[in-house]
Amino acid sequence: MLSDALASTLTASLPPPPPPANTDYPHPFPPSKLAYLIDSSKSIKHLLQIHASLLRHNLLDTNRILTFKLQRSYSSLRRLDYSLSLFNHAQTPPNVFSYTAIIHAHTTLNLHPQALSLYARMLADDVVPNAFTFSALLRDCPLKPGKSLHSQAVKLGCASDNYVITGLIDVYSKAGEVASARQLFDKLPERNLVSLTAMINCCAKNGDVDGARLLFDGMEEGERDIVCWNVMIDGYVQQGRPNEALDLFREMLELRVKPFEPTLLAVLSACGQLGALESGRWVHSYILMNNGIEFGVQLGTALVDMYSKCGSLDEARTVFDMIEDKDVVAWNAMVFGYAMHGFSKDSFRLFATMCRRGVYPTDITFIGLLTACVHSGLVTEGRRYFCLMKDEYQIEPKIEHYGCMVNLLGSAGHLDEAYELIKSMKIDPDPVLWGTLLGACRLHGNTVLGERIAELLLSKNVADSGTYVILSGIYAAAGNWDGAAKVRAMMKGSGVQKEPGCSSIEVNNMVHEFLAGDMRHPKCKEIYAMLEEMNGWLETHGHTPHIDIVLHDIGESEKKRLLEVHSEKLAIAFGLISTQAGATIRIFNNLKMCLDCHTATKLISKIKGRKIVVRDRNRFHHFVDGSCSCGEYW
């Protein structure tokens, strides 16, 4: 038997009961006033009062418009159960408008199977759908039912409607069928903002960001709204072109277009990719100035991620502590922040706090923890977290978790264990995983295993530039110059290009990029003059260039010169001449920092009394007074 409190709760959640038969009397308000009251209702309680009143006066069965409006208002307040109850118990058969409204309510809440079921029922009732019906059904619709709806829209003469075409463009875009989307777009009788934005989004999300920009630039200046700007900015970010994203954002601000939260999320991601700390700080201040932007968990998490990637962990933690009602994504961002900087103990402590507060970890949490283990060489802890994830939290390891474990074991010299782990995987190892182990073979001079892995990658035609470079390095380190030359020749013959090293530094809100031996910068003369000074300081302090890492059979002087003009050193030289004495220099590099640059940077930090923060492909290095936070483990 139900308790009185539970019975009361269940009764309160149900729609009003049907009216008694003898309560048919005129309502004191005319239908127009009732329609206004329904449309202006902002709470379920208010709607239920109106609903009860309509039932008492028997108006739901006699006034179809009021029933429709009530159904729609329940849906807008996310009470689909009330809306569906009204729809199912209507005395008069539903028409195209009521069917479209209830379908729209379901697709808005991402309930596509139910929406399609209602559509099938609609057809069975011989109710002919219109363009609005198809537009509602196509919202975030999967490809297979989307194609069927496309066919039916053509059959019923709705396929030429702008909103239907725009919905179809979105369906094909999300499935990666750009050609089909473009064909529909080109057939549009009249292009409007919605269809143009959909096509720009289609191009950008599927890799054709230049094609998206052509469409964007072809629009009239006043024609673009904030959604259109955001799609273009986010497109650049998603395709790894953060500089262009920030340039477009600045252009948007100059035109006095006010950003909204999704725009700032994309811009913060761009700042993180570039290491553009000053630009990220500006976005943070813009949020704090209360420009109609609410500081919530999503923006807070994006700021934590940005500050972590830009090398300012203290600011990341300050923002993290400000976030109220942190979700697991926010916790993961901070765990990752500590991990990428090599502060493993902080990662572990934060994880323990997170668990104590009842936040359940995800697979991403454990990638962060394992990354922390990798960057500190904590093999025992890594094994423990890997088992904890599987055994206690029932999280099946993904390729990223195996990648961390292989990296951890390989770097520590446990090559056989790493190899056996790969062979025992339930999922197929990818080339990146094999490449990680290949890099460990080079680190520990295991030519036999290195050759075996390289042959495997070459036989499967999945070898990238890293495969050739690492194998060449294994031979060169062993003094096998013929083998190294042969590998380089194979690389050249295969058409694979080695990724060039590139370092960037932000000064006065502008990001400056350098390649090895770069001569393009406007301050090239001053940079190379500072480089000569740096070489003098290093020589005075006993630095011996690590010419053994130069994998070319050339003379020692040529090897020394190649090391002197590495992109990191050019960026540091520019930082020294462009910033105030004592200011922190932050460098961002796309490749793993080489041993010579690492040793030189430690000395420069001591000689000049500067903190130098370097983010390479793998992790952060904090150089202070001649030492590095990595503890020589990277």
Automatic annotation (TrEMBL):
<dbReference type="GO" id="GO:0003729">
    <property type="term" value="F:mRNA binding"/>
</dbReference>
<dbReference type="GO" id="GO:0009451">
    <property type="term" value="P:RNA modification"/>
</dbReference>
<keyword id="KW-0677">Repeat</keyword>
<feature type="repeat" description="PPR">
    <location>
        <begin position="225"/>
        <end position="259"/>
    </location>
</feature>
<dbReference type="InterPro" id="IPR032867">
    <property type="entry name" value="DYW_dom"/>
</dbReference>
<comment type="similarity">
    <text>Belongs to the PPR family. PCMP-H subfamily.</text>
</comment>
<feature type="repeat" description="PPR">
    <location>
        <begin position="95"/>
        <end position="129"/>
    </location>
</feature>
<dbReference type="GO" id="GO:0008270">
    <property type="term" value="F:zinc ion binding"/>
</dbReference>
<protein>
    <recommendedName>
        <fullName>DYW domain-containing protein</fullName>
    </recommendedName>
</protein>
<dbReference type="Pfam" id="PF20431">
    <property type="entry name" value="E_motif"/>
</dbReference>
<dbReference type="InterPro" id="IPR046849">
    <property type="entry name" value="E2_motif"/>
</dbReference>
<dbReference type="InterPro" id="IPR011990">
    <property type="entry name" value="TPR-like_helical_dom_sf"/>
</dbReference>
<feature type="repeat" description="PPR">
    <location>
        <begin position="327"/>
        <end position="361"/>
    </location>
</feature>
<dbReference type="InterPro" id="IPR046960">
    <property type="entry name" value="PPR_At4g14850-like_plant"/>
</dbReference>
<dbReference type="Pfam" id="PF13041">
    <property type="entry name" value="PPR_2"/>
</dbReference>
<dbReference type="Pfam" id="PF01535">
    <property type="entry name" value="PPR"/>
</dbReference>
<dbReference type="InterPro" id="IPR046848">
    <property type="entry name" value="E_motif"/>
</dbReference>
<dbReference type="Pfam" id="PF14432">
    <property type="entry name" value="DYW_deaminase"/>
</dbReference>
<feature type="domain" description="DYW">
    <location>
        <begin position="542"/>
        <end position="634"/>
    </location>
</feature>
<dbReference type="Pfam" id="PF20430">
    <property type="entry name" value="Eplus_motif"/>
</dbReference>
<dbReference type="InterPro" id="IPR002885">
    <property type="entry name" value="PPR_rpt"/>
</dbReference>
<feature type="repeat" description="PPR">
    <location>
        <begin position="192"/>
        <end position="222"/>
    </location>
</feature>
